[in-house]
Amino acid sequence: MARSNLLDKGKKPPETTPTDFLATILEDIIATASMPYDQWDRLNESPFVPLEIRNSAEGRFRVTQVGVDAAHKLTRQTWENNAGYRQTFKRAEFDKRSFTAIGDTILQSPRHVENGTITEIDGRFYQLLAADYEINLDRLVKDALVDLDRHIPCQLFHSSQEVAAFSVGPVEFRPRAAWIERYVTDPLVLTYVRKVESGELRIGELRSQSSARPAERELFTASVIARWLGGFEWIATVAMVGHEVNQSHHKASIIVGLAIDVVGLRFQLDQARRFTKAGRQHLFAEDRLATTKDGAFVHGWGAEMAGLGSAPGALSAKMAAERPFFDAAGKLLGIYLESRQTGPAPHLVERWANALYWMGEARREASDFMAVVNYGCAADGLSGAGGVAKVMVAFAQAALNPKAEPAFNEAVATAVHRVYREGRNKLAHGESSGLFEDLAEIRSIGDTLLVSLFDVATLELAKALEQRPQVFEVDEKAAYRALLARLATP
User: Fold this and answer.
1) Residue 465 contacts by C-beta under 8 Å, 6 or more apart in sequence?
2) pTM of the predicted protein model
3) Which end of the chain, N or C, is surrounded by fewer C-beta atoms within 10 Å?
4) For residues 379 and 146, what is the distance between their CA atoms, to the nearest angstrom?
5) CA distance 329 to 460
6) Which long-range contacts (CB under 8 A, 24 or more apart) does 380-386 make?
7) What kind and span of H or E run contains 268?
């Protein structure tokens, strides 16, 4: 079979443009408009997905699957070509606004003919429609972007520790009482919340009062706050600027999680696992029931409790002493959040944040099998090794042994090989069947290795932001060479 001319010449087919998609949509709308309703309705294979494109005026244009497909393709192309949309919107919410922008564009289209701008429906007409689509979409997108302080309940330290409020970059952590005093500013709402906090009023009673007196919005607001606080003793707050509301919560939850993982880096594994936030399910409490072969019931109960305690006040002093590390990590987290408004963060910061997420997942993971894989991913990401164990080893040796002592270098290399080559690679590629195997030793090595690497790399990256910000602007490989040289300097 002969190949087409395009294939013979090694050329790619031309990309479909917004003007092409809008031409298809408008032609489909015109063709569908003349169809009897029953004929159009029979074209729809799903009664739950109508073949129509709506506009802001609460109107709708009937289309066939051809028009719907073209609208989806235009929406996807626009989404993929604009990093700002991808950062500030959840995809489903963006799709709704894109379809509405298309509907508004079609609704406004006659004006290009009626006011004498053009004399016939040609390519220039569809170029004007494409410009209208961009304007309409930009308007609808901007209308959806809001500035919010997002609040995420957490379990960090027991109240007996008297740990003061602190921050990790853009994330502020406040004890429950301090958060209430800061954010519950309406006096009447505050009165009701305080009554619940003191035990004078139960949440159920407050909700009943709210239902019985719907005109008193303060009762409803207090009920929402009291229920939302739940049993959490800490609240994390992060300002999310210019995001669609669903994406705002999604990104805030991830940023808060990273900040909690930063705090966890200053504690041992069994302690760090007890730092949690709303929505994380790695801690549990459950009743357990079994029966013996003779039919007898065996009952048990297990729990992993959130939050960290110690001798009264002991952790308050520790948190104060860890301030330099939290400040350094906070600088990186702040740059990450700010950069992610419009696209990726600077490469070294992006690597650090993603590796931190892998690290946190490893520490929370109940399965040794997955924890070891996650530690390996964290080591790979933080070092910029791209899966090359030799590069990972060089990075770890420079960070942990700047004097290049031979015996210590060998120990570092062994740790990296066990976590990455024997651990992550063999487990992820199926060479080792580790799901029910005892991998506690490799897991422990992985945790020690990564905590040590983050201790050094976090401080060094924060210092580079202040002293040599240009290292974040050069090619990633060159940036890692510069970082490696700084790490290797005693």
Assistant:
1) 331, 332, 335, 472
2) 0.80
3) N
4) 36
5) 10
6) 380/420, 380/424, 381/351, 381/354, 381/355, 382/351, 382/352, 382/355, 382/450, 382/453, 382/454, 382/457, 383/453, 383/480, 384/348, 384/351, 384/476, 384/477, 384/480
7) none
Relative to beta strand 297-303, strand 234-243 is: unpaired
| pLDDT (mean) for 312-332 | 92
Q: Tell me the per-residue pLDDT of 352-361, one tens digit each, with 9 for 90 and over.
A: 999 999 999 9
Contact 157/308 with Cβ under 8 angstroms? yes
Name beta bridge partners: 308.
157
Q: Between the CA of residue 212 and those of 133, 208, 228, 348, 463, what are the distances in Å? A: 48, 6, 20, 56, 58
Q: Which two tokens stand for residue 182?
A: 């800061």
The residue among 145, 112, 141 whose CA lies nearest residue 22 is 112
Q: Mind listing the pLDDT tens digit for each residue in 10-66?
A: 454 557 899 999 999 999 999 898 888 888 888 877 666 778 999 998 889 999 999
Q: What is the pLDDT of residue 38?
A: 84
At 285 the pLDDT is 57
User: What SS3 state is found at 28?
Assistant: helix
If you average pLDDT over residues 245-254, what whole number do you get?
A: 88
Both structure tokens of 252: 């805030």
Alpha helices in 266-313 (DSSP H): 269-272
- Show Cβ contacts of residue 279 under 8 Å, excluding neighbours closer than 6 positions: 152, 253
List pLDDT tens digits, range 264-304: 999 998 888 888 887 665 555 555 666 556 666 655 665 56
Average pLDDT over the chain, rounded to whole?
Answer: 87
Q: How far is it, in rounded angstroms, from Cα 176 to Cα 11?
A: 62
Q: Hey, what amino acid is at 446? A: G
Tell me if 421 sits within 8 A of 389, measured CB to CB. Answer: yes
d(CA 275, CA 258): 11
Report the C-alpha gap between 415 and 409 in whole angstroms: 10
Cβ atoms of residues 126 and 19 within 8 Å: yes
The amino acid occupying position 389 is A
